[in-house]
Write a structure and sequence with these properties.
mainly alpha, 18 helices
């Protein structure tokens, strides 16, 4: 009897621990507003006037954790901040990445790549040259591709020449798709080290040729539409369309948002952020999606409503009524 009670108590205790860990993990995940905000940050979109949907207390606590004695806490804190687009954490993440007490600095480099600012090219370029940490070199290379800055082209070409990161440097150049890389990419195609490098260089050349079209918008829209229907979403094409700021993209993003299938919340977040980045026209499209009855899962409406809430923040801060009294600073959270 005692053994049975002990077994029941043990099962209950294990269950409580599992539930606690699950709840704790869920709390670490960003909500839809935070994810949309982070997408805008990663693209380098101006977010002046937008209230960061994270509390000041949480930001300060996680920035402090970047210098925790527990190296794993540093990794988790950097990921938490980057996944919510906390730009002010960039200098601390970059500094912690270089600190010898950081466990897996590779992961901090990865986080830095999502903060969408040319300022992080230099510390990531230094990380690519690290003579001892191959993982850090790899993550820094990928992060430079995520940043998408033309300032990283020479760094990536140099890394590929040295053979320290292999075809990953070519993939990063493909994500940046800057014409200044073309001569080197053509040289790789002519004398590749292997088939993987040849294909990576060819893909980069194809992307650069696309963005060099007199009017690349229809080609990019086609990529977004097809990938929305069949998956996965072509994030690169979405980012390039956002950067061009062409109003024709609004309808394409709206249609893609409606076409994306179930269980693809991350794609919906990207498309909602893309519409929001288009200004008033995109915000009107978001409003229609937020108010429309959801035909295929609640998350579609919830994500549109989250984008609508962020968009209203932008309008409230950038375009206050001329005769309105000064608005008190809103508190994040």
């Amino acid at each position: 009897m005692r053994l049975r009670r002990f077994f029941v108590a043990l099962c209950v205790a294990v269950g409580v621990v599992v539930v606690y860990q699950y709840v704790a993990q869920e709390r670490q995940l960003p909500d839809y507003r935070q994810k949309i905000y982070a997408a805008l940050v990663s693209w380098g979109v101006s977010i002046d006037g937008v209230v960061l949907p994270v509390s000041r207390e949480d930001i300060d606590r996680h920035i402090a954790l970047l210098w925790s004695d527990d190296g794993e806490h540093r990794v988790e804190a950097a990921a938490w901040l980057a996944s919510r687009g906390v730009q002010e954490a960039g200098p601390a993440i970059a500094a912690s990445m270089k600190d010898e007490g950081t466990y897996r600095p590779c992961q901090l480099a990865h986080s830095l790549g999502f903060l969408g600012d040319d300022r992080w090219v230099a510390p990531l370029a230094d990380a690519i040259q690290d003579p001892r940490n191959a993982d850090l070199r790899v993550c820094a290379t990928i992060a430079l591709g995520e940043l998408g800055s033309a300032k990283a082209v020479d760094v990536l070409i140099g890394a590929h020449r040295q053979g320290t990161v292999g075809s990953l440097a070519l993939t990063a150049l493909s994500n940046i798709a800057d014409p200044s890389a073309l001569p080197y990419l053509h040289s790789v195609v002519q004398a590749p080290r292997n088939k993987i490098e040849r294909r990576a260089a060819e893909e980069a050349i194809e992307r650069i040729a696309l963005v060099q079209q007199d009017d690349p918008v229809p080609f990019l829209i086609d990529r977004v539409r097809r990938s929305a229907k069949f998956g996965p979403l072509d994030d690169w094409a979405v980012k390039k369309l956002v950067g061009l700021g062409d109003p024709r993209a609004i309808r394409a993003f709206e249609r893609a948002f409606q076409d994306v299938g179930l269980d693809r919340d991350d794609d919906l977040v990207v498309l909602a952020a893309a519409m929001l980045a288009q200004g008033q026209g995109g915000l009107s499209a978001i409003r229609g999606l937020a108010l429309a009855p959801s035909r295929s899962g609640a998350s579609r409406s919830e994500i549109a409503q989250a984008a609508w809430a962020l968009g209203n923040n932008v309008l409230a801060f950038r375009m206050p009524p001329a005769n309105a009294a000064p608005v008190a600073q809103k508190q994040p959270g």
